[in-house]
């Protein structure tokens, strides 16, 4: 069970690392979308300036100019939304890193990919997962603990042997042997414990079966 606790600590570390990676990618995505929105606003502002010039020259109608103004207004709204999303995502990442929420966060896209992982076949990946995945290791160690507990519980079916010894000394000048040794060998059996022992064994078997199902389902995740 101590090994189970250690594997559970490793599982929690993995979850925190995965959470960090996902939020980091979200921040990277929001930053890229922010750049796209900024470029869109610049393009529509240029288009609005051209539309104003054409309207003053009488080339386009007032309705065309209004459409250009509506487009730039929508683009600025999307830009504001992206800025807010980027700020919120950066705060989430700061929270994971236990930093002040308003601290600036700069992210960088990593384009290199490990060829070792890309070239790995499925069977090799399963083998590594079985050895390293904490969830599987937790289930395996728990099943070992249940097997040992089942062995200990089954011992209640059998008689218990005991050996007891003692030494008694009485100071008496008229007694031949003032010290006396005593050794008792016995056997005890509880005739009324069979039902509870059977119930405990059934409980352990049920827990083990549940762990087997969890282990099988974990491969599908």
Describe the structure.
With 221 residues, this protein is mainly alpha-helical. The chain is 68% helix and 9% strand. It is built from six helices and two strands; from the N terminus they run H-H-H-H-H-E-E-H. The chain has a two-stranded antiparallel sheet. Helix 1 (2-56) packs antiparallel against helix 2. The relative contact order is 0.09.
Per-chain topology:
Elements lengths: L1 H55 L5 H35 L18 H4 L3 H11 L1 H21 L5 E10 L9 E10 L5 H25 L3
Antiparallel strand pairs: 1-2
Describe this protein with a few key phrases.
single chain; 221 residues; mainly alpha; 6 helices; 9% strand; rod-shaped
Helical residues, percent? 55-70%
The major pleated sheet works out as: 2 strands, antiparallel
N- and C-termini, Cα separation: 24 Å
Derived structural class: mainly alpha
Q: What strand order characterises the main sheet? A: 1-2
**Global outline:** rod-shaped
Order of helices and strands, N to C? HHHHHEEH
- Overall average residue pLDDT: 83
Number of strands: 2
Give the count of helical stretches: 6
Q: Which radius of gyration do the C-alpha atoms yield?
A: 37 Å
